[in-house]
Design brief:
- It is a single chain.
- The protein is an alpha+beta fold and 153 residues long.
- It has one domain: Thiol Ester Dehydrase, Chain A.
- The protein is built from two helices and seven strands.
- Strands 1-2-3-5-6-7-4 form a seven-stranded antiparallel β-sheet.
- It is globular and about 50 Å long.
- The N and C termini lie far apart (32 Å).
Length: 153
């Protein structure tokens, strides 16, 4: 990867310095890569464990990760991109809220044991509102995608 701005992966304990989420709602385990040129882009990982509390009810005997939590994982990856970018610029990151989800598509189910690879590309920032193109994949196959709009506060 050209212009990799992360000297090493960002691990779970460090992610907690940037995001307000905590277990069981912290849905990004590691940031593998980030670049700022030619576009702002981040690759993160969510390890999907059978111990996730949502599997108890979604669905008993046939555990499937809920689509809304896949979208939330992508949104948290976007939050990491925004916060890490702010830190690189010597600024303090903001708290970001999910404002809008567009073009959400789910193409495969996500099961316990899967590793969800999250890719987020910043499309634009206008007046503290960020538009991100997001995708999630398992073993190189896309399982979900969407566009999200986040507002900084």
């Amino acid at each position: 990867m050209n212009n990799n701005v992360l000297p090493k992966p960002v691990e779970a304990m460090e992610i907690e310095k940037f995001l307000p989420h905590r277990y069981p709602f912290l849905l990004i385990d590691r940031v593998l890569e980030m670049e700022i040129e030619p576009q702002k882009r981040l690759i993160g990982v969510k390890n999907v464990s059978i111990n996730e509390p949502f599997f108890e009810g979604h669905f008993p005997g046939n555990p499937v990760m809920p689509g809304v939590l896949i979208i939330e994982s992508m949104a948290q990856a976007a939050g990491m991109l925004a916060n890490l970018d702010a830190e690189l610029q010597g600024k303090r990151g903001e708290l970001y809220y999910l404002v809008k989800v567009d073009k959400a598509r789910f193409t495969k189910i996500v099961l316990p044991g899967d590793q969800l690879v999250l890719e987020v590309i910043q499309k634009r920032i206008v007046r503290r509102m960020g538009l991100y193109e997001c995708s999630a994949s398992v073993e190189g196959k896309r399982v979900a995608s969407c566009e999200i709009l986040c507002a900084g506060r």
